[in-house]
Design goal:
single chain, 126 residues, mainly beta, seven-stranded mixed sheet, four-stranded antiparallel sheet, 49% strand, globular
Length: 126
C-alpha cells in the first residue's frame, strides 16, 4: 500500500519554472515505478513522465520532453517533477501515481497505476 501527497503547484508566468513534489508513505517506496499525469480543464488525463524503480530509467511524453525532468529520492520517499520553460498549455492538475508492474508495460496508461495522489494545480499565465 502506498499513499501519495503532491505539493508545489501554483501560478507562474509563461517561461517560468516550478518543481512539484510527491511524498509517499510505505516502506516499499523504492520498489514502485512512479509517474506524473495531468488533467487540463475539460480534457482527459494525460501522461507526463515516469521514473522506474531502479536504474534511473525515465520516460517522457513528447509534449514535455526537454522541458520537464522527473527524479526520485528513495531515501526521502519522494518523486519530483522539475518543470522549466512552462507554457500556458501546461496548465492542469498534476497527479503522481505508482505501480509495481513491469515499467514499460502500459507506462503511459493511467489504468496500470494502482495508487494515486489527490493532485496539485499548476496554472501558467501568458
Amino acid at each position: 500500500q502506498v499513499q501519495l501527497v503532491e505539493s508545489g503547484g501554483g501560478l507562474v508566468q509563461a517561461g517560468g519554472s516550478l518543481r512539484l513534489s510527491c511524498a509517499a508513505s510505505g516502506r516499499t517506496f523504492s520498489t514502485y515505478h512512479l509517474a506524473w499525469f495531468r488533467q487540463a480543464p475539460g480534457k482527459g488525463s494525460d501522461f507526463v513522465a515516469a521514473h522506474a524503480s531502479g536504474g534511473g530509467i525515465t520516460y517522457y511524453s513528447d509534449s514535455v520532453k526537454g522541458r520537464f525532468t522527473i527524479s526520485r529520492d528513495n531515501a526521502k520517499n519522494t518523486v519530483y517533477l522539475q518543470m522549466n520553460s512552462l507554457k500556458p498549455e501546461d496548465t492542469a492538475v498534476y497527479c503522481c501515481a505508482a505501480k509495481d508492474t513491469a515499467f514499460y508495460s502500459g507506462v503511459t496508461d493511467r489504468g496500470r497505476y494502482a495508487y494515486w495522489g489527490q493532485g496539485t494545480q499548476v496554472t501558467v499565465s501568458s
